[in-house]
Amino acid sequence: MTDKNGALLKLHTLDRERMYLERAAAVLRWDQETCLPPKGVEDRAEQLALVEGLAHERLVDPEAGRLLEELESHGEALPGLPALERDFLRVFRRDYHRALKLSPEFVRECARAEGLSQAAWVDARKNNDFAAFAPHLEKMIDLARKKSEYWGWTAAPGAPGSAYDGLLDVYEPGLGAADIAAVFLPLGKKLSALLAKITAKAAASGFFSKDPRRWDVQKQDAFCRELLGTLGFDFTRGRLDLSAHPFTTTLGFNDVRITTRYAAEEPLSGLFSVIHEGGHGFYELGLDPALRSSCLAEGTSMGIHESQSRLWENVIGRSRAFWEGWFSRFTEYFLPQMEGLDFDSFYRAMNAVSPSLIRVEADEVSYSLHIILRFELEQRLFQKTLRVQELPGAWNKAMEEYLGIKPASDTEGVLQDVHWSMGAFGYFPSYALGNLYGLQFWEKLRECLPDTDAALARRDYTAIHDWLGKNIYRWGRRLEPRRLLADLTGKQLSAEPFLRYIEKKYTELYEL
Amino acid sequence: MTDKNGALLKLHTLDRERMYLERAAAVLRWDQETCLPPKGVEDRAEQLALVEGLAHERLVDPEAGRLLEELESHGEALPGLPALERDFLRVFRRDYHRALKLSPEFVRECARAEGLSQAAWVDARKNNDFAAFAPHLEKMIDLARKKSEYWGWTAAPGAPGSAYDGLLDVYEPGLGAADIAAVFLPLGKKLSALLAKITAKAAASGFFSKDPRRWDVQKQDAFCRELLGTLGFDFTRGRLDLSAHPFTTTLGFNDVRITTRYAAEEPLSGLFSVIHEGGHGFYELGLDPALRSSCLAEGTSMGIHESQSRLWENVIGRSRAFWEGWFSRFTEYFLPQMEGLDFDSFYRAMNAVSPSLIRVEADEVSYSLHIILRFELEQRLFQKTLRVQELPGAWNKAMEEYLGIKPASDTEGVLQDVHWSMGAFGYFPSYALGNLYGLQFWEKLRECLPDTDAALARRDYTAIHDWLGKNIYRWGRRLEPRRLLADLTGKQLSAEPFLRYIEKKYTELYEL
To answer: Chain A: nearest CA to B469, how far in angstroms?
Structure first.
């Protein structure tokens, strides 16, 4: 018993040191995106490489392996160990083995290839020259396949699936390509059909981007701070800042920072980024204090994280009830600009549906289609049923099938996203999984809290946070996504709640 | 030759890692003072302790000791080694031995005692209760004496000086208490006499603090940014931010950040802080790129650093010529507030002399007196000719002798500064040394650049920076203060140039 506890304490010390170093690295990265003087980048890269390297050293410390073995020698079940400690050991072991299976040489090779690949992608995108990027993409796919194999996926003849499964598992533990395909493919068909109905019925009325009146950026910021605070973001435990691309980062248990950017010609893009990142922030700020400074103190997966951000941004933030609470306040901030704009037009404008070429600008109906398309292409690349040089053609074909539009260039087609150039295969699905999880949670929440619309209309978010906190936020990595979902909803991953939500909302909106 | 170079390269790697970690810790500290959400302090303290501990590990790495020995075995002179490498070895060795001589247990004991002492000082200051702080101060003096002994000062009977010499050497390498006393004591008498003459002649006319008109803080910031940029601060290599107490910190070779704070009732306090910290910044930004990321890449001493900040703040920033360049611009920024205020009154107001109880609010004439008083008391404490319980009395007596005023309470007397509670004995002299060095440099600069007043009046600072850069900035820690001063002026430390400057300026200003 003493030995077991001694080993466990030592493991916690290693883990805590790793987490403090990772948080320190996160401070360096946050500063880089928000504050760093332009010429400071070189030294910062060196500082980051060093601090991240030291964090990694703690993760793969041979002492950790020895301690894990010692604890295992006490028997599989480790009798008497509290559930929290069991979860800690499971997650620590997962991180340890995953990290250990990649040799330092291989990690360096990946980093080098990634650097070259990203630079090539920037040029290729600028010059609309997919061919110039193709060899780098081949290389990144090759390295990703190797990575998946190092992690334990086997290419033995007759083995099910592809190396892609091993990659998906990084972002969404326990979910394979077949599980995702079973949900994504029918969803794609239905969303595509709905989108076609909407576009046949009406042209989008996105008045904001065409409005020549300027929306004062300082006022946007003031409104967003009021909104974020009212939504429940605790500014004694976090910050809102500006950066080129919005993001959320955790620098400490009581230090979660989100960023946004504002455009003077358009007031809602910055605002919805704030709500989206706020959703990520609520999750990280809602962790059980017992997980503090341990490897459990993070969101459990990319998909669950996106379920929170997309729930707040879209399901809550673009709802009638929500704006019943905020419309008049927003109008006070932007009196001249909002003159003559009634609630309904405002609500329609923020929910305008229009198939577009670019994922990050997509509306709620077409967004998941962009993701499903990418998922299918990734799967085929790793199944080797699609070659890299065939990718632009396959992309354009799928765009036409799903969205009914076709990119005029690869720049606004297959080259638009940074993810593949970084070798982040398996990451895209998280975005659409977030939509699905989000609505599975939301249906359950509304069962438990039937007065939610009224609460939203009076800007009272307490019950929502209490429910999400108790059922999702606090668990961190203790519950894997599958388990979290099953415990809470009694269901597996399903697109039904999301489809119900989308069909109801947009049938009404577009009077289909 | 190969071995020697191999050992040197390894030493540089250790040194670079230490410096990157120290810079990373500086990022964490900067963020703490400017950005950190209030509740983030606890985790930040842990992150800082860890990163600073890792930096320290590199400094005292036994491998460093082995490499230094190996290099020494190649002979004292290390024939063929470039001067830069010799300087590197000298400074690295100094840091290494200094750090090695304090055991980890002793460092922890100091940190613990410092924490308690600072907390006790905060309370004692609030409650005007010196007696409650006295035991902590005794302890800090005792620890400082031990530290000095560990570093090599010997208490043997007949040994010259006191443990204080060993502490002074931290901040001002090569300068002992006797050297400083020889200059400070006559300076104190002369400044005190001048101050008495001024106060007999005229009451101070510090109109700013009494002015009920508010000075818009955003305008102050805009003016300060314009001023700082024009002075030559490169915003692609640095930043200006807000913090409770102004400071300068180096986060990378191209990342030097200064802070200030603004008061709406007074426009010059924030502004002179910007110029003061800007002076520190110019020094750090002017280092020779060859020193980058090494232990040489810092100002050579606290005193020399203060010589730069105080030169810019006072000698340049409070001069007639400087404001001939900026008065009309400043008036443009603050048109209503400046109405009816002519150049002469403005210039007089910023140079108003009035003995005050608080060091940080002191004018140019009395500032050094506050320092000399502290130096004398520190010296007596370490010579054991003054006991801690006698300190308040000695303080008040010296205040009356030097400044002709007496604190009504210890809070605005002996308890006003944080330094002693931190055990930073020997730090205070740097401030006055900065005044002296600064004028020694400035007299030389004006010999070389006789048109300086005209350049200042047309806001052209290029020649000044070129001269300071070539003679001071670029050297970093390669030249110790004594050597820097001797090479540049041919002189030892002297108060004569400072006294000449003060007497001329204030005799004219107060028509003595």
So the answer is: 20
Q: Does B23 touch chain A (CB under 8 A)?
A: yes
Band the pLDDT of A77: cuts 50, 70, 90.
Answer: low
Record the tokens describing residue A105, joined without a space.
Answer: 């040489």
Contact A28 B23 (CB under 8 A): no
Q: Is the ipTM of this complex over 0.90?
A: yes
Separation between Cα atoms, residue A370 and residue A376, nearest integer Å: 10
Domain segments of chain B: what residues? 2-100, 207-350+453-479
The answer to whether B218 faces chain A, any CB pair under 8 Å, is no
Q: CA-CA distance, B483 to B488, in Å (whole number)?
A: 8
Residue carrying structure tokens 């308040």: B392
- pLDDT over threshold 50, residue A1: no
**pLDDT tens, B348-403?**
999 999 999 999 989 999 999 999 999 999 999 999 999 999 999 999 999 999 99
Radius of gyration of chain A (CA): 23
Q: Which residues of B touch A234 (CB under 8 A)?
A: 39
Cβ-defined contact of B40 to A293 (cutoff 8 Å): no
Residue A244 class from Cβ within 10 Å (0-12 exposed, 13-18 middle, 19+ buried)?
exposed
DSSP class of residue A257 equals: E
8 Å CB contact between A481 and A298: no
Q: What is the mean pLDDT of chain B?
A: 94
Residue type (1 letter), A332: E
Q: How far is CA A99 from the centre of its chain?
A: 22
User: What are the residue numbers of the active site of A?
Assistant: 277
The rounded distance, in Å, linking the Cα atoms of B207 and B204 is: 9
The size of the A-B interface in CB pairs under 8 A is: 106
Quote the CA–CA distance of B506 and B240 in Å, as a whole number.
Answer: 32
Give A242's strand partners. A260
